[in-house]
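Protein: Cadherin domain-containing protein
Species: Eschrichtius robustus
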Amino acid sequence: MLLQTDQEKAVHTISNSQRGLSQQTPPLDFEAVAVHNIVFQAENPEPLVLGVQYNASSSATFRLIVTDVNEAPQFSQQVYQAKVSEDVAKGTKVGNVTAKDPEGASTLGGISENPGLGKREAGQIAPQPDYCRSQLRAGEFRSYSLRGDKRGWLKIDPVTGEIFSVAPLDREAESLYRVQVVATEVGGSSLSSVAQFHLTLVDVNDNPPRLAKEYTGLFFCHPPKAPESLIFEATDDDQQSFRGRHFTFSLGSETLQKDWEVSKINGTHASLSTKHTGFEERVYHIPVRINDGGRPPLEGTVSLP
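Structure follows.
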């Protein structure tokens, strides 16, 4: 019979006429409880003598010592998420990850002797680090690294877990940039664990308007019997607002206004029209300015043949 234990449901007994067997039920955890003290008492199925109580000689104390097994570093979460503007400067901190030693060592990022390090917020430019590292036992120190940084946009401080931009970011290329962060135990078993880092890029107006497609091979019959026109569409590569795109259109040169005119149809379409029929038979290249009205406003000049 099991009388008591220092942890509920740590072990249980299996009765046997010749011997007592003990068996653990949950997995043992050195970090939670390193030593279990368990008291057993032996009893006959029937009392030996009526009215006689069992004494201390009928019980025994069993001490179960749990030995430590080295485990891989553990991240505080499996998926880290951050958001920054796509136009942040190189060297800007964009995120931070943290892993700890299950054996009880301090978290990575807390071993610098300079208390000011490791406290920068996302979006701030990091100074050049000059870490004063503590003396650590073999297997205690964990090094951070990145995996899957296919565009070479990011770097991670191997000590603090801070993540920085090292190249221009481009939302039009990757609006959600995913990489893996690896925490590796150094100096011991080299055990490692992996977490995900997702960086959302916020759009800025950095792409000038352009034609939505190529307009080639367009022609008007000569001699024209009446003014002619063609409809064209504009677009850009920036994120569209909930109101949609609102481009404005104008001729690229004032000298063209006596022969041509541009008329807006809607936020993305306009028409280029002739004002008269007295044109020579030749190829005309008409520049058209398209303004996106963004912040800051960007303008592109296209040519319609």
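Remarks: The chain has three domains: 2-65, 74-202, 210-304.
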